[in-house]
Structures are given as C-alpha cells and as structure tokens.
Amino acid sequence: MSSREYLYKNLRPELVAPDAPALADACAPQRSSEPRFTLERDVVLSTSNRQQLDEALVKIRYHDVIYETWGFAQVDPNGRGTLLNFHGAPGTGKTLTAEAFAGSIGKRLINASIADLESKFMGDTSKNIVSLFAAARNEDAVLFLDEADTLLGRRLSSVTQGIDNEVNAMRSTLLIELEKHPGIVIFASNFARNYDSAFVSRISQHIHFELPGDDERRAIWAKLLVQGIPLSLVREDLIEALVQPSAGLSGREIRTCLRLALPKPLLEGGGGRLTPEHVLGAIEQLLLTRNDIKVSTPGEQTGRTDIARKLLGVNSRSDV
User: Fold this and answer.
1) What pTM did the predictor assign?
2) Closest listed residue to residue 162, CA positions, set 125, 122, 127
C-alpha cells in the first residue's frame, strides 16, 4: 500500500469528499487580498536567497516549457504545484517576501496560520484545511501558511488521547491537500527542524533567511530612509555611518530603530533634521530594551512553549 493510499484510508470520509459545488464556492466571501509589495521593488535579499527565488519564479512562469515542451510531465505528473519553505530567525523578512513573491507573479494572497484553522470541535480543523485550499484554488491565490511548524510537525506514533488523533488527522489532511494542489504554497517558520520528513520531501525549495550582512543592511537603510526625511548630512554618508552599528539587527529591528529615531528631530531642541546621533541613540534604545526584557532568539524560546507544542505534537528543537 502506497503512502498516499494509507493516508486516504485513515482519513474520515468527509475529508476526502469532492470539492463543494461551484455555486456554493461563488457565494463564499473572498479570503485573498491584493499584495502590496513585489520582490523587485520592496525586498532586500542576500544573493543566495535572490537566486533561489528567481529559480522558483522561472519554474512558475515557464511551467509549460519545462513540463510540456520539454516533456518533464512524463516523469513528474504532479509537478504543477510549487511548495516553498521560508525558515529562519524572526524579523528576517519571511512574511514580507511571501507577500512580495505573490505580487511579483501577479497573484492574490491568502495569509493563514494555525490560529485561523484550529477548532475546538473534533474534525473541524481538518475541514478548515480543506476549505482553505479550495479557496486558494478558486481565487487563484498564493497560499501563505505562517508558523508552519505547528502544522507540519511530526505525526504522533503513540496515540493516547483524542487530541492526538486530531493532530494526526490534521497533518494527514494537509499532506493530501498539498499532494493535489496545483497552485503555490509558501510556508514560514522559525522552527523548521520540527517538520515531518513527509512534508520536507514534498517542498520544492527550502530558503533560509539569515540576519542581514553589511551589504543587506546598507540596502535596508537606503530603502527605509525615504527621500522626504530631512537629514543633517549627505544621505549616503548617514547610511554608511549606520551599517556597522546595526550589525546583528534584523530588518524588522532596523525599521523599529527608525520608528524610534524619527520623532527625535521634532522634539524641542531636536534641530528639525535627522542626525546620526538620533539613529544611533535609537539603536542603543533597542539593544538596551532587548537586553532588559531578555528578548529570546528562536533557540531560547523552547522552554516557554514546550506545553503548547506537545499539545500540537511538535518536538521542541529550534531552527538554529
């Protein structure tokens, strides 16, 4: 018996029923939205990540050439769908990149997480997954699943409670939906090492998002310091002065520093123009705050999340 046959055999019948009639789908409200960003205009990426995303875009844009003209469909009949996994530390641009990816290929986006899918009623979480994929197909939208480790974690081999059955049913349903989905699905996680190997092998590309290096931080500062901001010195000189002091910060934290810095020139005695001291002071504020409240990295979060993750059948190793 193949793994696919095993999954279908162990799912409740209502979860593998044919899709609802088109009339009912047409009455449902749209779940997708228009992307605000594109990769070309709005996202700063490392050379490696840009290369991997470009390859994914080419695969989508030239699918007919690869699969029909070149004949690859003969050996990969289920290859119409594209599954991408964005993993790495918080604040490194996974969510932004997912939305921009949809924008670059001119598709709408459905953004969902476990909070949108889970239900206290037995069987409803799996039904919600089926409904979500149906919406992505009907709206021709990219499906973005955030906090994916809670969905893609290892299935439980020792089932002792009803919730264990529910977790396994949810993950089996997701496997089946991914197998037959003809569209684009993007996962994002800070804990990709928790993924079940059955999911890992189905994902086309795993793209690791790291903290930005010097070149990426320089580009991030240049993008965030928009032309309308009054500066006390030449814009390029200010950017260069901020590259090294912001080492170790994520793109999200760099944006937070500017949110802290921009009111400073408008204070009494602030001078009306943004200075290096204003921004450096904001960086120091952020670092002090991070230290004072002991903001955790992905590798330090496991203690406080163990109970919740056990309920979801996810082990506690972090993606470091």
Assistant:
1) 0.79
2) 122
| Alpha carbons 37 and 100: distance in angstroms, whole number | 5
Q: What is the model's pLDDT at position 18? A: 45
Q: End-to-end CA distance of the chain: give it in Å, rounded.
A: 37
Q: Count CB-CB contacts under 10 A for residue 68.
A: 10
Q: Which residue has the higher pLDDT, 7 or 256?
A: 256
SS3 213: coil
Q: What is the pLDDT of residue 3?
A: 56
214-292 in CATH: which number? 1.10.8.60
The CA distances from residue 46 to 131, 164, 187, in Å, are 35, 40, 19
Which residue is associated with the tokens 């449902």?
28
Residue 187 host element (H or E): strand 184-189
* CATH numeric code, 3-210: 3.40.50.300
pLDDT digits 0-9 by tens, 158-167:
545 555 677 7
Q: In Å, what is the CA distance from 90 to each residue of 3, 147, 193, 221?
A: 34, 11, 15, 19
Question: What residue ranges do the domains of the chain occupy?
Answer: 3-210, 214-292
